[in-house]
Amino acid sequence: MNFEGKSGKHLENAIMQFASLPGIGKKTALRFALHLLRKQENEVEAFASAVLSLKKDTKFCSICHNISDEDICNICKDFTRDKSKICVVEAIHDVMAIESTAQYKGLYHILGGIISPMEGISPADLNINSLIERLKSGEVAELILALPTTMEGDTTNYYISRKISDLKIEITTLARGVAVGDELQYTDEITLGQSILNRKPFVQK
Known about the structure:
Elements: H1 9-19, H2 26-38, H3 41-57, E1 59-60, E2 67-68, H4 74-77, E3 82-89, H5 92-99, E4 106-110, H6 128-135, E5 142-145, H7 151-163, E6 170-173, H8 189-197, E7 200-201
Parallel strand pairs: 3-4, 3-5, 5-6
Antiparallel strand pairs: 1-2, 6-7
Helix pairs in contact: 1-2
């Protein structure tokens, strides 16, 4: 669908910006742009302000790398959470998926990706060193590896397990209720919740 030169540069620019978002095609981008055009000016300003604030004011937790309004996120600050457990995930949306199950009350650590030589992602590109420093504190009794059930996820699990092999920490993984190749964000809450509750010891292959 080509709008160039047919609908005015302001609408075309808005469509182009919306279409740059993942999963948004030109038709959907047009609907979004026309929807905003019908809104009151103060509503559009509030929308734009929220998006700009998201970029300018959002921080990343200095402990677990979760998104936060402050230096330390609400989960890490919550004194009711079980600090003896850390769940390692690939990305922020995985934290949201696990939290939605209400079956896990420990802490998290977000790697910011997984090891993938094909994509040029090495251990140095991930938040692995900060994880190891957390584990050296002696407070953590269990490390839950909740990474994608893919070759890259398994490689990352193996790398982390080898790096902390000298620490007396139990390493577990999610039960295979999560199908091989699945991502946590696309797993239903009941299946994911049961996978957390029924987690099993990690076995190096």
